[in-house]
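Practice problem: predict the structure.
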Amino acid sequence: MSLLESTIRSILPADEAARAAARARLDQLAMPHWALGRLMDLAVDLAGMTRSVTPAVARKAIVVMAADHGVVAEGVSKYPQAVTAQMVATFVRGGAGINALARLSGARVVVVDMGVASDLSALAEAGRIVSQRIAPGTQNMAKGPAMARLEAVRAVEAGIEIARDLGPTVDVFGTGDMGIGNTTPSAAIAAVITGRAVAEVTGRGTGIDDEGLLHKVAVIERALEVNRPDPEDGLHVLAKVGGFEVGGLAGLILGAAAQRKPVVLDGFISTAGALIAYTLAPAVADYVVAAHRSTEKGHEVMLAHLGKKPLLDLGMRLGEGTGAALAMSLVEGAVRILTEVATFAEAAVSQAESKGPRPLGGHPPERSETPR
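Answer:
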């Protein structure tokens, strides 16, 4: 049995007994019922993921998957491909947006070369990045498959290996990405798996103008016509119109779910990875926390397909894992509410008088980030 197959088989739905136990405690906290709203919903979800009413969330890591894309030859980005490697160097120096926000949330940043066009072997040999390099970038998906199916499997299994290797020292995973042109394959993946028109899920990426956006949509439509990806087969979609970093992110999500650990999903590219993972193992949705709503067109459609509502909406579209880094503080806050706030009985505080069949105020305790 392959690593991918064994990982998929080990992914189980979230534990309902742990969710019920967490909900029962939260129902009795010394505050108006469900007064902290979605923070309490998140606490229930985390209990279900980890099978515990005291979820471990202190050790955090953002995994930034980096790769290049042959489709940039079609002029879909404002920036040259060389920027991918330049930004990897910036991550290593600690000077990028993700570094600043990861320091704030107390998360490690792990950078993985999944297939950057430039030679990053010196950084890998020095232990500054992890090399899971498949090839120096994908092929041009507008002219044929982005990668071979075997390469797609290798990319996903590389992400699983990263999750497995980090697992003993990480409680919460976060997803991040770097790859010039990667909103193009991500939009293609979104269109195929959600069944929406390309124009509905394709945005401006690095900030292209109206003419550039129309061209980008046409390139994606051409890629779908040339490749005919099967929406029921995530590996087929990844091979035909995906990216190595998207495959790595899909594997990371699968690997986290197999370990019963939460994975905080960043923006558009990370969610494309989650869509691939979801087609392979639908139960992974129980382990995903949607950090934020990207301004990239199509992100909300992708999240809806996964049954997820984002925690934050700050007009962000940088990627790198920045949204995940911010949301990790909310993950930790949800657990602190569950484990540190006293119940009415523990605090010797009088409860509100019952006015009817429902407790006072707040959201119903059944509400959850994961639809049931």
